[in-house]
Structures are given as C-alpha cells and as structure tokens.
Write a structure and sequence with these properties.
By secondary structure, the protein is mainly α. The chain is elongated and about 55 Å long. 0% of the residues are buried.
C-alpha cells in the first residue's frame, strides 16, 4: 500500500519529544494491509503483466519490466 494514502495524526510536541520524532503502530498498519490485500486480485494480471502497459507513470519503464515471466 502506498504510504501517501495513509491517514496521519499530527499533535503538538510533548515533553521528551525530539525534532523529527515519528511514532508508527506497525501492528495496526499490518492489519490494514491485510484488509487491503483481501480486497485485491492475485497477480499476475491479463497477459502475465504486473501492471497494464497503458498505466500512466511519471517515468515509464520499458514494457519488459511489466512481465512476470
């Protein structure tokens, strides 16, 4: 799952916090991942591709990068 699609909560710094501190509940994150995975289809997709060739990407790989075999 892409990290930029995850919900975050920003709170004021508390005593003992340091610049750049980040707290992550990895157990909860893994639970959400398993829920998401249950909603997906197993790969590879049609034609043995990981992603459709028409899938828009900022830097598009060569077509052989999409093959799973």
């Amino acid at each position: 799952m892409h990290a930029w699609h995850q919900r975050v909560r920003v709170v004021k710094a508390e005593p003992g916090d340091r610049y750049g501190d980040v707290v992550v509940d990895t157990n909860r994150s893994h639970e959400i991942y398993k829920e998401w995975l249950a909603k997906t289809k197993p790969g590879p997709g049609p034609g043995g591709l990981r992603r459709p060739l028409w899938f828009d990407r900022p830097v598009k790989p060569t077509p052989d990068a999409y093959r799973t075999t």
